[in-house]
Backbone:
């Protein structure tokens, strides 16, 4: 996407063998790129959420393995890098998907071939993410086009989104926001309600992205979405996801479930943008998805400023589960799915299905 | 309630003819009392939310009229004070209820009698609020007692609350928190999930009150409540209200509706603490309640720190409507009501009903 008018990816290999990332903890105040030199540094960047968003975490982990192989390509180094990277964010399935893919490729290779193969594979994972997200955008833009057809001339389609499932959460395009970019490319008029998404206020990232692309948007507190739906001010909800169970239950940023309930109560369609790599076929239902409990200081502080005294007892679950019964459909790179079983599973994930 | 071990009311007349309030914008960082000398100052204190919470706003408005009468008791001064005070917070019905009560009393009186009568009436409104809230506490404590009976020994009843409907929102005891104080007095073990309640984070006030009384509690972001209910970690939701329509629909702090939806989805009882003065019999349903749109800087900033750049478009509705179908019952000073029509309306509001 564009930053100050120039095309950028969120993660890209540099000619000097380092990996350039955006330090997303500095956004929206500052757009800063950081060079990552080692697998350790990449693990730290994932844990600290300098890189964040399930698809980007997957690509970043792959680049982390590639950096480890460039330094030392023996079995011990490979196992160590994978274990350390896997340990950074327990809920993001893409992380494990990407690491497994790297391991499956690299383990059988002789040490001497691993560095180059790892580098190419990380690049392939990045490129596939871009292509996949663009396809999600096409599918979702068609949906927005349908909603636009019901509007009077000049009236925008109002889309509510939670957290940041934009360009910044992927290598390019994003997932939940990809339909918005492509709808805009098609000349459709949209307006986005941006949930601020406490505790970390990733809505600020979404607002920053929308501003960079010149798309009208309004930031709201997480409490406001239900009221807006009651008032008929939301035409559709589109969110991203961190992990999808085989039955279609979705783990996404804490608070997603509340918006899904409000959407159902007000007959607002509720879509989840789902790269099929986010589907964990090994997990039967949402009940079995591990929910990450994050550091309470994320709640106690905001942008480093104390909101609650440090003595305050805090709970900070990072995600919640939205049951498939509340989901109108899944916007995937393979088209719009009313339920996950519409996917040709054999074709999608042969290795996983065979293993299951 | 207790502050640092001493009993205090949120608003009290001083012997020098001023009114002492707590500057609640300084909480929880500092407990500061401020002296209010004029009706103008009181209107400003209400508008700036130095005093806040529907019942306290009612008492504060009454004291505002009393201050105006002490200064100048002619019809013009009375009309001006009432108009100015009525204009501060459009959604709070107690404000209008208290002002109407003051006007009904004062208008027929000769100028010379107004100052003393106004002072006595403001004191009576304050005292009645305290008695009413204590009665709400008794009703609600009985409910909590029922829930405690289903628990194993030593297990706390988990109560979720939104915004601050505690002591600070009233003259004393609070509404939604009154049952918690009285349950604790009865020796019941409770734990409170405190919604932080963006944009203004009144959850920080609730946490401060609970800490002052030594009651276990945990602050959560507004996004987390649904997840906690899915996990079976919430036994009951108790919230306050700013205005109740005749059909039982409730206007309360933005986000209340989302918690009511989650409660229904998880079979968690959802109660609203309702002083009957909060019921607006002239308003048929929630659809007819005016929702205040507040200043966007409340969202853009938190504790004076910028979260979103000032160019960010923001919407900031202050309240939402929770339909009566989502409400298990109303905890009133006249007992527990399954629906509002259980109230003996004739007895409650004869003047209003006759006027309708």
Residues:
């Amino acid at each position: 996407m564009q930053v100050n008018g120039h095309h950028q990816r969120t993660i890209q290999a540099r000619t000097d063998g380092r990996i350039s990332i955006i330090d997303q903890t500095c956004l929206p105040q500052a757009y800063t790129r950081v060079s990552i030199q080692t697998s350790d540094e990449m693990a730290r960047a994932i844990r600290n959420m300098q890189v964040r968003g399930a698809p980007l975490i997957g690509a970043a982990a792959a680049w982390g393995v590639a950096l480890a192989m460039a330094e030392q390509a023996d079995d011990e180094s490979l196992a160590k890098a994978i274990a350390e990277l896997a340990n950074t964010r327990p809920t993001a399935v893409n992380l494990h998907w990407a690491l497994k893919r790297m391991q499956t490729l690299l383990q059988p290779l002789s040490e001497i071939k691993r560095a180059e193969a790892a580098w190419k594979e990380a690049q392939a994972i990045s490129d596939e993410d871009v292509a996949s997200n663009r396809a999600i955008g096409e599918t979702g833009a068609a949906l927005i086009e349908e909603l636009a057809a019901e509007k009077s001339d000049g009236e925008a389609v109002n889309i509510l989104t939670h957290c940041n499932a934009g360009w910044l959460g992927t290598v390019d395009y994003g997932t939940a926001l990809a339909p918005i970019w492509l709808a805009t490319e098609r000349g459709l008029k949209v307006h986005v309600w941006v949930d601020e998404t406490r505790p970390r206020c990733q809505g600020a990232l979404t607002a920053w992205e929308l501003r960079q692309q010149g798309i009208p948007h309004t930031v709201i507190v997480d409490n406001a979405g239900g009221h807006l739906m009651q008032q008929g001010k939301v035409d559709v909800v589109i969110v991203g996801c961190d992990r999808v169970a085989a039955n279609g239950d979705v783990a996404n940023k804490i608070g997603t479930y509340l918006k899904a309930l409000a959407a159902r109560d007000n007959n607002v369609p509720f879509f989840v943008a789902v790269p099929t790599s986010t589907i964990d076929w090994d997990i039967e239902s949402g009940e079995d998805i591990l929910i990450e409990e994050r550091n309470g200081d994320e709640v106690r502080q905001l942008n480093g400023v104390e909101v609650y005294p440090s003595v305050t007892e805090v709970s900070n679950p990072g995600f919640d589960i939205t049951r498939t019964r509340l989901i109108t459909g899944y916007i995937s790179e393979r088209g719009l799915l009313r339920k996950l079983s519409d996917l040709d599973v054999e074709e999608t994930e042969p290795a996983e299905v065979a293993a299951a």
Remarks:
- The longest strand of chain B covers residues 190-195.
